[in-house]
Write the structure tokens for this entry.
Amino acid sequence: MMQPKKTKFRRAHKGRIKGNTKAGAALNFGEFGLKALEPNRVNAREIEAARRAITREMKRQGRVWIRIFPDVPVSQKPVEVRMGKGKGAVEYWAARVAPGRIMFEVDGVPEAIARESLRLGAAKLSVRTKIIARMEGL
């Protein structure tokens, strides 16, 4: 699973995901991509599960790019613990995903296989998504 090697601070504030994505809204590497339609946090387990589903459907042909990285530590306190006594331990790592963000890109396989693999990958994510394709005339 993905997580940063080193961070400046161990725990982070929750924060909010406001507006559309500032960067990463265009296909840069592959012919087909998976675009987020709503703001949400996607944890490292979901990213890894989606990556496995995509590569398995493509039968390890072509290439897959992961355009998001889980760099936000999400902490939780244990169940039935009283208030106070500080912030909980880091439970998992997540990536903040804004609407319009390209999360995965695929290239080197036929369109039918690419769309099916991205559809299976999207089923593993907690965000509503849309499969997009590069325009040929650009």
Notes: The chain is about 20% helix and 30% strand.
